[in-house]
Amino acid sequence: MKIDDYELLLKLNEIGTIRGTAKAILISQPAVTQRLKYIEEYFGEPVFIRTSKSLVLTPAGEMIMEHASNVIKAEKAIKNSLAQSSGEVQGSLSIACSSLVSQRFLPSILGDYTNAYPKVAIDLVTGISEDIKREHKNYHVCIIRGEKLKETVSELLFEDPLYMFDTEPFPKNKVKERPLISFKSDDSMHELVDNWLYHHQDQIKPIKMLHVDQIETCKQFMEQGLGMAVLPKSVSKGMMGEYPHIPLQLNGNPVTRDTWICYQEGVRKLPQVDQFLSAILDKKFL
Fold this sequence. Notes:
Among the domains are: 86 residues, Arc Repressor Mutant, subunit A (Orthogonal Bundle), CATH 1.10.10; 95 residues, D-Maltodextrin-Binding Protein, domain 2. The chain has 10 helices and 13 strands. The strands form 3 sheets. Strands 3, 4, 5, 6, 7, 8, 9, 10 and 13 form a 9-stranded mixed sheet that branches. Helix 1 crosses helix 4 and helix 2 packs across helix 3. The model has no long low-confidence stretch (mean pLDDT 92).
C-alpha cells in the first residue's frame, strides 16, 4: 500500500462518492474505482458499501479507515521531524483557509512560496470559517474570518470594511425598501449585518431575503437589479464607481469583517511553517 492509497481512502470517506472524489483529486472516475478495488483486494475485505447516494463504511472499513488516518499522521510527523532537525525547508504544510481568502489572495502567496520551497508538500482545505474552527487542531495554519481563535496564537491579517451595494440610489430622507441578497457564510457575518440593519431601521428596510450559495452569485444578482447586497471591500474592486453604495458604520466606526491567521504555540519551530507565516504576515492585503 502506498501513502497515496491511504490518502484516497480518507478522501473517499470525506466526500462520500467515487464521482465527487475523482473530481476533487483530478483523476478519472474509473481510475478511482480501480484503486479502491486494489485496496479492498489488498486487505481482503470490502471497505465501503455502495449505495445509490453515497459510500458507507463497512465494519472492516471503519478499522481500515482508522489505520489509514494513523498512517497519514505518522507520515506527516516523521517528515516534519526530519525537516525540523535538518533546518532545510521541506516536509508538509497543512493549511485550512476561508473560501474568500483562498480565492482572492492565497493563489499568489502559495505560488511564490512553492517556487521558493519546492520540497514542501502543501495540504490545503478551504471552506467556511466556522467549519475550520472546529477542526483547527488538524492543521498547521488556519486563516479565518470573523472572530479569532482564542486558544491559538492569532494575528490580524486585515480588516475588511463592509458596504451595502445596489443598482438603485440610497435616498437620504426616505426609507429604502428593497430585497436583500445574502450569501452563505458563518454566523458572525450574518450577525454583523443583522446588527447594522437593526440600528438603521429608519434608513433600510429589506422587504424579503434572497439567499445564494456563493459571494460571486450574490454580486451578480445585485448587478442584475434583484436587490441590495452587503459585500466586503476585498471583493468590491471596481464596483465603487459603478454602483450606488454606502459604508456600514456604527457609532461613526466602520463595520469590518476581520481576517486572522491562527496557529498553535511552537509550530513555528517547523521551518516550512515559519517561512509561510513570515510570507503571509509581510503581505499587504487591502
